[in-house]
Amino acid sequence: MNVEQPRSEAHGSNSADEKGLAVLLQKAGRRPEPPADLAERIYQHTHEVWRARVRRRTRYRWLMSIAAGIVIVVVGWGALFHETPASAVQIATIESIVNGASIESAGSRQTAVSGNVLLAGDVVETGVSDGITIQRLDGLEVRIGAQSRVVWNDAAGLSLTRGRVYVDSGSRVGEDRALLITIPAGVVQHLGTRYQVDVQGQVATVAVREGRVLIKPTVGTSAELSAGQAAHVNLGAGIERLGASRLIEWTWADALGRSITIDNRSLSSVLEELARAESMQVLYADPVAAQKARDVQLHGKDLQLSPRDAMQAIVATTGMTGKIEDDRIVVSLPDR
Questions:
Q1: Which of 58, 34, 132, 36 is nearest to 92 (CA)?
Q2: How far is CA 55 from the centre of its chain?
Q3: Under 8 Å CB-to-CB from 318, ≥6 apart: which residues?
Q4: d(CA 280, CA 291)
Q5: Mind listing the pLDDT tens digit for each residue in 59-88?
Q6: In 201-322, alpha helices (H)
Q7: Phi-psi region of 24 (alpha: psi -120 to 50; beta: other; left: phi over 0)
Q8: What are phi and psi of 260, to 5 degrees?
Q9: Is the full-model pTM beyond 0.85?
Q10: Is the distance from CB of 265 to CB of 297 less than 8 angstroms?
């Protein structure tokens, strides 16, 4: 074939060159050997060049192995710190704690700490004299009383298996502040704005301080409670309406409330805030007393008192008098 012919010619040309080189070497004769010291220097130089190449090759392989290890470590640590479980959804923050409380998260139990976040699925438990206040990301506040157990199902719902909770949605109400509280005997739907649910065994007591709630029992028909109303929800008997909610104890919830800021505020504004917390009215004996309450500027540290106690203590410092009568406080100037 034509492709084989060049190879044959090239092979023949090489053989002729090799024969010619052999004849030339025979004619030249034996050449004198180089001096021994020169041969040694050539050998040493050649050996050093060879060792340098080996060291460079070994070092390169060593550096590459270290680099590969670093990449593996970095990738490993990156996966460790950036991996977030799909269920780790932040829903609330711990605002304050009285005595203590525990949080069970992802199967691990730890002591509750103010400022820590709660995730969906976390369980909050309190002891005999404990209490904890938690604020959802939208501002809705949940206060958990002593000897309670609450499971945060998600941002819109929790389960109260024992103990009591107090809910305060603030001045805002609506779909964006929805909350469902699951109890042994049914569900309490938050309609706004302030109420408590107390579970003892299979019976829950629901009392509304302000706003409305809708109770959906597992047995019987649903019922809505408004401000000033209360009811028992029994697992086997449905809903039983009670007397006025003001007969229900609220002091535990007030004790877990935020401190009251009074510095550089008028007496009237502070009284209105405290009265709202107790679903009370602020009345003035006459226009002069009302004007003075607007003019008086308060100064001092934040107060950690129940709303009723705070109202009486604050009014007393201004030289005015405050008389609490059921669901109202009457503020007047002292008799002259």
A1: 132
A2: 55
A3: 267, 292, 293, 296, 298
A4: 20
A5: 555 445 544 444 434 334 333 333 334 447
A6: 251-255, 267-277, 287-295, 307-317
A7: alpha
A8: -95, 120
A9: no
A10: yes
